[in-house]
Write a structure and sequence with these properties.
Order of helices and strands: EHHHEEEHEHEE
Distance between the termini: 24 Å
Strand order of the largest sheet: 1-2-3-4
Oligomer: single chain
Low-confidence stretches: none
Mean pLDDT: 96
Structural class: alpha+beta
Strand content: 25-35%
CATH topology of one domain: Aminopeptidase
Bound molecules: coenzyme A
Radius of gyration: 15 Å
CATH superfamily of one domain: Gcn5-related N-acetyltransferase (GNAT)
């Protein structure tokens, strides 16, 4: 576990750190399972347009998303996202420098606890193949295998993982 790991609800000013972690994690871990073209589409370089778009989404929050961040030494080292209305676990990403130290598991536990508090009895994630083992290790089962259709028309293999909460 990292020193003084704390988890809190994300604020819109965390948008840039969230996007930087997303970019770094996708490009560090994704190459095991996907081509560079797919990774570039999954997470393009962080710029002011992306940051502003995410900030606006977090403020307006049309889907009722719950964003959380994990911090160590006042630095954001990971983030997670659920959409309780859809039973959806939409994201769990950890900075490559902080991986393998329990951050992902701590984020997942907090998301599951927040989901339960909102009356959500299961969560499911359309997970990337490189994260499949992480979800299995944390009690998720494979519901089905499928593909995301990316904007370019490329297809990205993914796996629907589900966990009943209690
Ligand atoms: C997957 C990810 C969130 C894991 O975060 P992490 O902080 O390194 O994970 P933890 O240290 O909390 O690991 C918890 C447990 O899961 C295991 N684990 C972590 N990643 C794993 C993987 N890819 N495959 C198999 N097991 C994994 C760990 O070994 C650990 O097991 P242990 O308790 O027996 O030691 C992180 O590597 C990441 O951000 N990956 C890229 C982003 C991504 O694809 N996210 C999912 C999008 S759907």
């Amino acid at each position: 576990m990292l020193p003084k790991l704390t988890i809190r609800v994300a604020r819109d000013e965390d948008a840039e750190a969230i996007l930087q972690i997303h970019y770094a994690a996708v490009h560090e871990f994704g190459l095991r399972c996907y081509t560079q073209e797919i990774l570039d589409e999954w997470s393009s370089e962080v710029n002011s347009i992306r940051i502003e778009k995410l900030r606006r989404t977090m403020i307006e929050n049309p889907e009722g998303e719950l964003w959380i961040v994990a911090e160590s030494n006042e630095q954001i080292v990971g983030f997670g996202l659920i959409v309780p209305l859809n039973n959806e676990l939409r994201a769990c990403y950890v900075s490559p420098a902080s991986t393998g130290k329990g951050v992902g598991q701590a984020i997942l536990k907090e998301l599951e606890s927040q989901a339960l508090k909102r009356g959500v009895d299961f969560l499911q994630a359309d997970a990337s193949l490189n994260a499949e083992g992480f979800y299995v290790r944390n009690g998720y089962s494979i519901a089905s295998r499928g593909q995301h259709l990316l904007r370019s028309g490329r297809k990205m293999d993914c796996v629907l993982m589900r966990k009943y909460l209690s």
